[in-house]
Amino acid sequence: MEKNLIDYQVLIIDNIGMLSRLYRYGEFAFIGGAFGKGLHNILEAACYGIPIFFGDKNYEKFQEATDLINRGGAFEVHDFSDFEIKV
């Protein structure tokens, strides 16, 4: 039975290697890592033109993150309240 992904608001994937192709189904992407020591790949999500959100620590060492923020395609967030405001 084939399912239409447009009918779902949450997509849970139990598979490695598919994320880069799944961003096209999203309205935005929250990329992990930037509340800690680094930032996971944001360029895969950026290819689909969706807004990108990530934590506000240590993202500055990633030129693509700074460039996307400057161009209005990405946003750093401090916490959930900040995220709600920026979404």
In short:
This protein has 87 residues and is α/β, with parallel strands linked by helices.
Explain what you see.
Helix content is 26%, strand content 11%. It contains four helices and three strands. The longest helix is centred in the last third of the chain and has 8 residues, at 63-70. The chain is globular and about 45 Å long. It starts with 18 loop residues before the first helix and ends with a helix. The relative contact order is 0.16.
What is the overall pLDDT average? 86
- Report the principal-axis shape: globular
Helix content: 25-40%
Report low-confidence residues grouped into runs of 5 or more.
none
Distance between the termini: 35 Å
| SS element count, helices | 4
The biggest beta sheet, please? Answer: 3 strands, parallel
State Rg: 14 Å
Task: State the total count of DSSP E strands.
Answer: 3
Report strand order across the widest sheet: 1-2-3
String of helices and strands: HEHEHEH
Strand content: 5-15%
Computed structural class? alpha/beta
List keywords for this structure.
4 helices, 87 residues, 3 strands, alpha/beta, 26% helix, globular
